[in-house]
Amino acid sequence: MLPVSTWTQRYLQVGCGGLCGSISFSVGASEGAEAVDNGNFALGTTDMDGGTDGTFGLEEDKRVAFSYEAHHWTAEVSKSLIATYYGQAQAYSYFTGCSDGGREAVMEALRYPNDFNGIIAGAPAMLFTFQNSFHHGWLAVSNVDENGNHILLSDRLEILHDAVVSACDSLDGIDDGLLSDPRVCDFDIYTIQCASDADNSTCLTSAEIEAVGKFYSGAIDTDSGEHLTVGEVQFSSELGWSGVFVPETATTSTESESVALSCIEYLILDEYPGDNYTLADFDFANSSIDLLRPRHPLLDSVSADLTEFEAAGGKLILWHGWADPQISPRTTIAYHEALQSNMGADVVESFERLYLLPGVYHCGSGEGPSDLDLVTPMMKWIEEGVAPYEVITSSAESDTTSDFGQWASGSSDLRRRKLASTSGSSSSASVTRPIYPYPGVAKYIGSGSINDSANFEEGAPLYTNLTGYWLGQDFFDPYTPIEG
User: Fold this and answer.
1) Of 31-35, 329-333, 357-361, which gets the smallest average pLDDT?
2) Domains along the chain?
3) Using alpha carbons only, what angle is made at residue 217 by residues 296 and 470, rounded to the nearest 5 degrees?
4) What pLDDT shows up at residue 396?
């Protein structure tokens, strides 16, 4: 898209989501950004020449295009068109994307450090190989009984969610229905297990409790008992499970099942496993990690060495919803920590920021305020040298569609906003809440409406432990991305 009269010598490229396969110019993380609203950017995007079901991964050229080539080519072609159309090059180039678009964003910083000045990566699927095998695959198989029926159904999620919030809401100093940092929550799921499975209208059966326990734990190696993933679904994300790995009926298929099977079959494994392959054939064990290694440097964008991007003057903003059920925010935190460990905290501070949004699902929506503008802070960082700090998030009671142009997880009847109904506010109240660079959290000052960001300040971190050991953590070590 090339604006005729409003262009300000800025180029903005938009990433896609899922397995791509469609074109969208929806610019996320830009709520209220004047430069976007006024058409000041030349916009570019691509569908990666792929598809929505992963079968394109059997063709090497399309697999490579999806992995990294297509977004680089899009940048090069777009800049050439800009120079031809306007008679001058862009002064600044930006990239923003969420989900796979977030993976693409970090991939650009890693592989092509000179393509963009500023990169915004939301809920990045940067650890693609683990995300779409051990994570989604585990969630899918953990909710299926011996007869192939799903155990926990979506109409049971409110029981669990309400119990979690009731137990942990006040740990951040304010009773607002949101967990500012779910890692401090130590909810005991067995407190809501039905006695003798007799009455399950306000409790969960033993089978449901077992499934829930597996969701929270994440994939575990049966031999060593060690974690096979860096992150798992977080406390307070429960309503967002609906439609992702918790269906409405016992026989309804889930997103986790289809995504995991398609990605393992066609993209992640180095050799096609055959037409009769099922998730039951994937071994959730340490030995399976080696099956992911050949394509790790092709598909993943988690190398903890962004030295060239930093040297080129590039800036990176990572953001993630704490209640994201599809990609664990702890993966993004682990990457942030890996950058600090490898490059040094002071160096990382000079070019990278991480923001976490309480109560927000995958790429938006959820119970927490999810409308935000990171484009304007990024422009100020690049063009004026002003590093981002406090960012205001917002939402209205009726707003449940802030999803970065991606599919929004969760059925509409399960998406609730508790903030606007607290402290006597009207059901249509606007909610604003600040977020701060990780590990800072918003702290209520003790007076005024909790729906008004003016009544919050930066508080001390609620959780200070680094990411614990997990069996694939060497995937974050610096590596050289492979070609093809």
Assistant:
1) 31-35
2) 10-127+299-404+416-459 (3.40.50.1820), 130-295 (no CATH)
3) 40
4) 66
Q: What is the DSSP letter of 68?
A: I
Is the confidence at residue 410, as pLDDT, over 70? no
Q: Which H or E element spans position 36?
A: helix 34-37
- Positive or negative torsion for Cα 92, 96, 100, 103: positive
* SS3 of residue 33 by DSSP: coil
CB atoms inside a 10 Å sphere around CB 223: 9
Query: Which class for 346: exposed (0-12), middle (13-18), buried (19 or more C-beta within 10 A)?
Result: exposed
Place of tokens 């005729």: 4
Give the helix/strand (H/E) hosting 324: none
- pTM equals 0.94
Element of type H or E holding 42 = strand 41-45
List, for residues 86-108, the tens digit of each pLDDT value.
Answer: 999 999 999 999 999 999 999 99
Sequence-ordered alpha helix ranges (H) in 87-179: 100-111, 128-130, 136-141, 157-168
pLDDT top residue among 482 and 156: 156
- Please enumerate in sequence order all residues whose Cβ is within 8 A of that of 98, keeping only pairs 6 or more positions apart, or say none: 15, 17, 28, 29, 121, 122, 123, 124, 363, 364, 404, 405, 406
The Cα–Cα gap between 454 and 432 comes to 8
* DSSP bridge pairs for 459: 441
Backbone CA torsion sign across 121, 72, 47, 93: positive
Rounded distance between C-alpha atoms, residue 435 and residue 441, angstroms: 6
Query: Which stretch of DSSP H or E encloses residue 405?
Result: none
